[in-house]
Recover the amino acids of this structure.
C-alpha cells in the first residue's frame, strides 16, 4: 500500500518522463505480482514497456511476470536485457538464473549464480545454486543451510518457504520420506505467496503419494501463477498420475528441471508406454542422474527384461524394508512378474501407502488371486477401502 501511494504521488511530477513512467509501472506490476493479481501486473507491464522498452526495471518485472505465466523464452529475453543494462539489479540476475534452470540449462544457471555469490553471499542465490547442482546430477554446493535459513527466514516468508522446498528436495533424495513430507508441507502452506516453493512442495508430496495435500497446495497458487508456470505444470502432472489418470498421449511436457521432475517423467513414460518407453527415457539421462536419485534408479529397473539379476535386487529390498515407496512398488512388480504373488502383495500394499503410483499398485493387487492375498486384502472391497484410506483422490482401479 505504501509503495502504491508513493507511485501515485510520483506520477504527478512534472514534466512527465518516459523512464520515470516505466519505473512507476514496474512498481505497480511488482506489487500486483506479489499480491496475486496477474492481470493487473500484465496491464502495468504493457504500459511500462510502451513508455520505455529499454528500462531495466520494467524489463526485470516483465521477465518475472512472464516466468509466472510460463512464457519462458520471453522471460529470458526480458531478464537478459535488465541484467545487461543494470548489472547491480541482483533480483533480475537471480530470476534469469531461475529461468535457465527451468530451461534445463544447469551450467548457465550455475555460472550466473557463482558470479553473483562472488560479490555477495545471498541466500536465494545459494538455494538456486543447489537447484542447478541437482539438475546437473551433482551434490548440492550448499547442503547445510539450516542456520542461515532460520535466521533469514525470520524476516522473509518467501525465503522461509524456499528453504523448506530445498529441504524437501534434499530429504527425498537421501530416502528420508518423513523429513521430505514435513518440509514439503511447510513449503506448500503458502507463506509469503511463494508459488514456486509451493509447487515444488506439491511435486514432492505427489511423488511420495501425498496426493490430497499436493492438490491443496496447487489450489492455493491458482491466482499467483499461469497454467504454463513450469513448477505448476510438473506438480499438476504428478497430481494427475497420482489420481491414476494418464495424460493424453498427444500432450507434450517440458524438459525436466531437476530430480523430482526426472522421477515424474520416468513415471509418466512407464504409465504411457510400459518398459519400452521407460527404457527409452532412461537412455537420455546422464549416469549421474541415476546415481543421484535411488528412487529413479529403482524405477529404471522396470525397463529391463525379466528376470533382473538377483544381486541387483538386494539394494532394492533393503530400501523397501527401510520404507521407500518406490522400491516397494518396483519390487512388488518384479515379484509379481516372476510369479511370486504371495510376496508381491505385501510389497505392493506398502506402495499403496507411500508412493505416487498407489493407484497402479492397488490395481496390481486386484489382479492377484484372492487366495494369495493376506486377510487384510482378501477381497476386492478391502483393497479399495485400503486404497481410499491412503489416496482418496484415486479413481477406482480396474483390473
Amino acid at each position: 500500500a505504501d509503495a502504491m501511494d508513493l507511485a501515485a504521488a510520483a506520477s504527478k511530477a512534472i514534466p512527465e518522463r518516459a523512464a520515470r513512467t516505466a519505473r512507476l509501472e514496474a512498481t505497480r506490476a511488482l506489487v500486483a505480482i506479489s499480491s496475486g493479481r496477474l492481470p493487473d501486473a500484465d496491464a502495468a507491464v504493457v504500459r511500462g514497456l510502451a513508455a520505455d522498452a529499454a528500462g531495466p526495471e520494467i524489463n526485470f518485472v516483465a521477465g518475472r511476470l512472464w516466468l509466472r505465466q510460463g512464457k519462458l523464452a520471453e522471460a529470458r529475453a526480458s531478464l537478459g536485457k535488465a541484467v545487461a543494462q543494470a548489472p547491480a539489479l541482483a533480483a533480475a540476475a537471480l530470476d534469469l538464473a531461475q529461468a535457465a534452470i527451468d530451461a534445463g540449462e544447469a551450467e548457465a544457471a550455475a555460472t550466473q549464480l557463482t558470479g553473483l555469490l562472488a560479490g555477495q553471499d545471498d541466500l536465494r542465490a545459494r538455494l538456486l545454486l543447489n537447484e542447478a547442482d541437482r539438475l546437473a546430477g551433482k551434490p548440492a554446493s550448499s547442503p547445510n543451510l539450516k542456520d542461515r535459513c532460520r535466521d533469514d527466514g525470520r524476516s522473509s516468508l518467501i525465503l522461509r518457504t524456499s528453504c523448506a522446498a530445498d529441504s524437501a528436495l534434499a530429504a527425498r533424495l537421501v530416502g528420508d520420506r518423513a523429513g521430505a513430507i514435513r518440509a514439503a508441507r511447510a513449503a506448500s502452506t503458502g507463506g509469503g505467496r511463494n508459488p514456486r516453493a509451493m509447487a515444488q512442495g506439491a511435486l514432492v508430496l505427489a511423488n511420495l503419494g501425498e496426493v490430497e495435500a499436493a492438490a491443496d497446495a496447487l489450489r492455493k497458487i491458482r491466482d499467483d501463477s499461469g497454467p504454463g508456470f513450469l513448477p505448476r505444470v510438473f506438480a499438476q502432472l504428478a497430481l494427475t498420475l497420482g489420481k491414476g489418470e494418464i495424460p493424453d498421449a498427444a500432450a507434450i511436457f517440458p524438459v525436466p528441471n531437476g530430480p523430482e521432475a526426472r522421477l515424474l517423467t520416468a513415471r509418466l513414460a512407464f504409465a504411457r508406454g510400459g518398459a519400452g518407453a521407460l527404457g527409452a527415457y532412461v537412455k537420455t539421462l546422464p549416469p549421474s542422474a541415476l546415481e543421484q536419485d535411488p528412487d529413479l534408479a529403482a524405477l529404471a529397473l522396470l525397463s529391463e527384461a525379466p528376470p533382473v539379476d538377483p544381486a541387483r535386487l538386494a539394494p532394492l529390498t533393503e530400501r523397501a524394508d527401510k520404507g521407500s515407496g518406490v522400491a516397494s512398488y518396483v519390487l512388488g512388480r518384479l515379484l509379481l512378474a516372476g510369479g511370486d504373488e504371495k510376496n508381491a502383495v505385501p510389497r505392493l500394499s506398502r506402495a499403496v501407502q507411500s508412493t505416487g503410483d498407489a493407484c497402479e499398485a492397488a490395481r496390481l493387487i486386484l489382479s492377484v488371486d484372492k487366495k494369495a492375498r493376506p486377510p487384510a486384502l482378501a477381497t476386492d472391497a478391502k483393497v479399495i477401502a485400503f486404497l481410499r484410506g491412503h489416496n482418496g483422490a484415486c479413481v477406482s482401479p480396474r483390473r
Observations:
- Residues 58 and 367 are 58 Å apart (CA to CA).
